[in-house]
């Protein structure tokens, strides 16, 4: 069992949960799996019900990644804007799942789309969370050549979050890819600097260094495991904690 932060004694007040687009595919190869969205929604609701303020950042890799479009000859910036639009679709899917189980939510997009969702307004997002709403941030930072990891780091800093939780398909950060290398072992703890120096594929380097500058812990855990989010928040869940030491 890993030592986790925040500990039982230091229950976080507000967190940002980053969910990659790929996680929304469930067992599928593409797109959005409704049951998977509902499972995530239940875990998010449980965290909210325990008194934690939550905001979410959703990726778009299950639908479109700018870099893949660019590899096929598309202009990179155009492809990245398409990727950002994919994150808005995912945000709406998760919003629907959350609202279907009685959780009040707001989607705020870094690309204004006022007939669909709110534009990103920092103080308004904070107010929503104070009222118990879950805020889902879509469209990353709103600029091409970035990723939703950077969007997650930026919003976590802006929202004054106590931790950035990165939900992945594995139990934390490993020495190698555990899906292809059976000798890979999981780190309980890492420092931001180690993550950057070892070039561990946790989050983009820019996101990791932003969290280092803001002194916000990154907690990597398996979001596909129902109930794991609550365990991690309670200080008992398997995960990797990235902090300053
Ligand atoms: N994207 C972007 N700027 C941002 C966030 C996202 O250009 O601030 C684009 C980029 O093309 C990226 C795509 O949106 O490939 C989907 O986001 P990401 O790859 O981060 O999703 P994830 O891997 O988390 O599913």
TrEMBL record:
Activity regulation, per record: Inhibited by UTP.
Matching entries from Pfam families are given as: AA_kinase
**GO CC field:** cytosol
Catalytic reactions on record: UMP + ATP = UDP + ADP
- Give the binding site residues for UMP: 60, 80, 141-148
Q: Does this entry carry the keyword Ion transport?
A: no
What keyword terms does UniProt attach to this protein? ATP-binding, Cytoplasm, Kinase, Nucleotide-binding, Pyrimidine biosynthesis, Transferase
Q: Which GO terms describe its molecular function?
A: ATP binding; UMP kinase activity
Nucleotide-binding recorded as keyword: yes
Places the protein is found: Cytoplasm
EC number, as in UniProt? 2.7.4.22
The pathway noted for it is:
Pyrimidine metabolism; CTP biosynthesis via de novo pathway; UDP from UMP (UMPK route): step 1/1
Looking up SUPFAM superfamilies in the UniProt record yields: Carbamate kinase-like
Q: Its family?
A: Belongs to the UMP kinase family.
Q: What does this protein do?
A: Catalyzes the reversible phosphorylation of UMP to UDP.
Name-wise, this protein is: Uridylate kinase
Organism name: Candidatus Phycosocius bacilliformis
């Amino acid at each position: 069992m890993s030592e986790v932060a925040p500990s039982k004694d230091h229950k976080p007040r507000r967190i940002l949960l980053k969910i990659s687009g790929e996680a929304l595919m469930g067992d599928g190869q593409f797109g959005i799996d409704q049951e998977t969205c509902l499972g995530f929604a239940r875990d998010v609701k449980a965290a909210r019900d325990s008194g934690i303020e939550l905001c979410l950042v959703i990726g778009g890799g299950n639908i479109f990644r700018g870099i893949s479009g660019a590899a096929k000859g598309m202009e990179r910036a155009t492809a990245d804007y398409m990727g950002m639009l994919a994150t808005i679709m995912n945000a709406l899917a998760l919003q629907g799942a959350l609202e279907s189980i009685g959780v009040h939510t707001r989607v705020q997009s870094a690309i204004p789309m006022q007939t669909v969702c709110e534009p990103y307004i920092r103080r308004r997002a904070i107010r929503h969370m104070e009222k118990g709403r879950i805020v889902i941030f879509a469209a990353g930072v709103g600029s091409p050549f970035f990723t939703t990891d950077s969007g997650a780091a930026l919003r976590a800093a802006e929202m004054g979050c106590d931790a950035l939780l990165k939900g992945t398909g594995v139990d934390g950060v490993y020495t190698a890819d555990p899906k292809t290398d059976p000798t890979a072992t999981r780190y309980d703890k890492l420092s931001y600097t180690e993550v950057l120096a070892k070039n561990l594929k946790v989050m983009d380097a820019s996101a990791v260094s932003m969290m280092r500058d803001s002194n916000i812990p990154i907690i990597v855990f398996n979001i596909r495991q129902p109930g794991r989010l609550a365990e991690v928040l309670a200080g008992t869940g398997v995960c990797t904690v990235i902090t300053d030491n």
